[in-house]
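A reminder from the course coordinator: this example appears on the midterm review sheet, so study it carefully.

Given structure:
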């Protein structure tokens, strides 16, 4: 960190990141996506479609919209009429969910750099960004694009509650970690040093499960895991 960075750090930590700096960073992420996405499509034979890039502050609103739509569809399936106790409870739950999503945004933004949800990669401009800056991290981009690949291969939209249940998170994060660390690692610049340190124990466990399946079936299994992970996990020991 330079002397100028040290002198200006208190200012950066106190005030929001300027819109011009945000746009520069967002454009850097878009350029990386434009580089890696067609190469991942060529490698897998899967069209990934459009991938949007937004500031993380947009995530709670986007997530709430998607989850509420899915929940309302569930209400229609269960035929809860407007004004019924079940319908009123659901409406209160929607409001509480919106408050919770909004309140957790600041903490998540301070701790992260990139995130993925529903065809969109979100860029964080919280404390971590202000303190460390943000060089577009190749593995982070590919990690999030592998999440997008998972979504396209699984054929499922994000729905109310199905994205964080059971072993789903371990498998989806392990899959994205494997994609960034191994599957697509040869796409990085020649002098790029791949960081094999897992983000967390959960990511490491999931990656090891993917590695076990690849060792048993070959890399062809990677295109089946997003849709068949619940069946395939019976072949290997669970944590």
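Designed residues:
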């Amino acid at each position: 960190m330079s002397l100028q960075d040290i002198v200006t750090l208190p200012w950066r930590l106190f005030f929001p990141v300027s819109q011009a700096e945000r746009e520069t960073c967002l454009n850097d992420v878009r350029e990386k996506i434009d580089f890696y996405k067609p190469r991942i499509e060529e490698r897998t034979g899967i069209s990934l479609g459009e991938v949007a890039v937004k500031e993380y502050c947009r995530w709670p609103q986007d997530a709430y919209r998607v989850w509420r739509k899915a929940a309302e569809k569930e209400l229609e399936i269960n035929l809860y009429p407007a004004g019924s106790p079940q319908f009123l409870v659901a409406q209160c739950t929607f409001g509480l969910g919106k408050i919770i999503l909004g309140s957790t945004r600041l903490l998540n933004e301070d701790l992260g750099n990139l995130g993925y949800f529903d065809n969109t990669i979100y860029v964080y401009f919280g404390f971590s960004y202000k303190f460390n800056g943000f060089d577009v991290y190749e593995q982070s981009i590919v990690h999030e694009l592998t999440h997008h690949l998972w979504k396209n291969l699984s054929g499922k939209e994000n729905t109310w509650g199905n994205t964080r249940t059971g072993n789903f998170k371990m498998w989806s994060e392990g899959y994205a970690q494997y994609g960034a660390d191994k599957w697509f690692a040869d796409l990085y610049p020649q002098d790029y040093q791949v960081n094999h340190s897992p983000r967390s124990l959960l990511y490491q466990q999931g990656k090891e499960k993917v590695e076990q399946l690849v060792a048993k079936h070959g890399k062809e299994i990677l295109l089946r895991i997003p849709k068949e992970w619940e069946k395939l996990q019976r072949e290997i020991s669970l944590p």
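The radius of gyration is 20 Å. Residues 164-239 form one domain.
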